[in-house]
Amino acid sequence: MRALLGIDKGTTTTKAVVFDAESGRVLGLARRATQSFRPHPDWHEEDTEATWCGVALAIRGALAEAGLPAADIAAIGVSGHMGGLWALDHDGVAFERAIAWPDGRAGELLQHWRDSGIVEKVYDISGNALIPGMPIVLLAWMQRHRPDLFPGIAHVFCAKDFVNYRLTGEIATDESDLSFFPCDIRKRCVSESVFDLCGLSGKSGLIPKVLPIGAPVGRVTAKAAAETGLSEGTLVASGAGDGVAAAIGAGALLPGQAVTVIGTSFMNNLTVDRPVMEPRGVGFLFLMPDGRWQRLMSNTGGGSVCLDWVIEAFGRKEAALSDGADMFTRIETEARALPPLPGGLLFHPYLNTSGMTAPRHEPAARGSIMGLGLDTTPIALVRSIMEGVALSMVDCYGAIDAPVDEIRITGGGARILLWRDICAAAMNRELVVTEAEETGALGVALLAGHAAGLFSSLEEGAARMVRVMAKVQPDPAMAERYAAAFALFRDIREALAPAWAARAACLERGASRNAS
User: Fold this and answer.
1) How does pLDDT run across 320-361, given as a tens digit for each residue?
2) pTM to 2 decimals?
3) What is the full DSSP assignment across 275-288?
4) How far apart are CA 443 and CA 462, in angstroms?
């Protein structure tokens, strides 16, 4: 049997998945938690050796569950969270701690760049709205605040590049992760101008060689084979950053094809045939295979994390009475029995400290629930949260200046039938549900299969390996209710913006008084 291994090095969990190369069927899967460290409140670091050990254990677990000899793995692809700062010194030794993308230590520096117009100028080149956890921002922070460490940096890349390095010994990155450095998005290359704007003139050589997405990066070394259980010499493809990998794994390869991922964050990604820069200063623009791009409108403040919050806050009694599966079945059944917008509840899903990231950038934004009353029940809150996330989907796609021909929906939240029904009704269009939940791992497995010559094109590989599980049609009555509610959802968002800013200023004053 010909099999492919996809590795998705996530922020909280690393997954390794063995796929049948002919059908995309999952043969073996293993997960390992990703340990993180927060030595300061806004910091988010990983121990690089511990991370590699977790990857190696996940690979061994997936191979064991698949029950296949390692020699049956034709090729390997790796995905990973984009951004952060994974550095090697001049001897090729990884820095003990890597900085992951949720890190906020460079927030003050980034605010200075906003005030001085640097952020806007970088956006004009890259199509990416800078966030504190981007490599260029963290590199500039290191230059300012860690002069003891900065001169020792010889190479900078991202999480999946580090995994590839440990598998093959090759130092490289790919176009998708380069997008988020960020780069010259039109010319698809490193931008000296971005380095100059960020006070890093002459430092672009810290980025290693940039490979096409999914190109061969090397082969598994003897040392990596001993650590993972893989066969020495197995081909490793460059893979892709997680946003791009998820789109490939959902089969959204052609212009006009979109994929919505209801994960911890809520990502709405559209494949386009040109660099789409509108709305300005918002969202991300990533390089895709075959000369295409991906416009990503991500609500990092709320996907399944919103549902987790309401169940944790109000569902503890139910959790104590039953196991998790039964609890979720009962919650979904009860939420479905309620009418749309129960009691007139409207939820804005901005629970994360990043605030609202699309369709506008409002870092001070926070979640809100309008319409609470004495008759509001926890189940009504559950449904309103699903609806609020779905209305933010309408908000995000409506802001993209490009046609959306098809939307595929995936992620853990898409396994909740009611939630995808609500999304279809809010968008008032058919949604395609793909079978594989681990679309990032599938996407890089597909890239690996193409690199190994198993498919003549990515489209051929997707036709074989991306399996459509269902097509969800919008309920006309629900669609009518949500269409009427969307204008109010948008108006409340606009009206709250000054209040969000005032709240943030109030918190800052309180923190200053406490510090003094």
Assistant:
1) 445 555 777 888 899 999 999 999 999 999 887 677 878 887
2) 0.89
3) ---PSTTSSEEEEE
4) 9
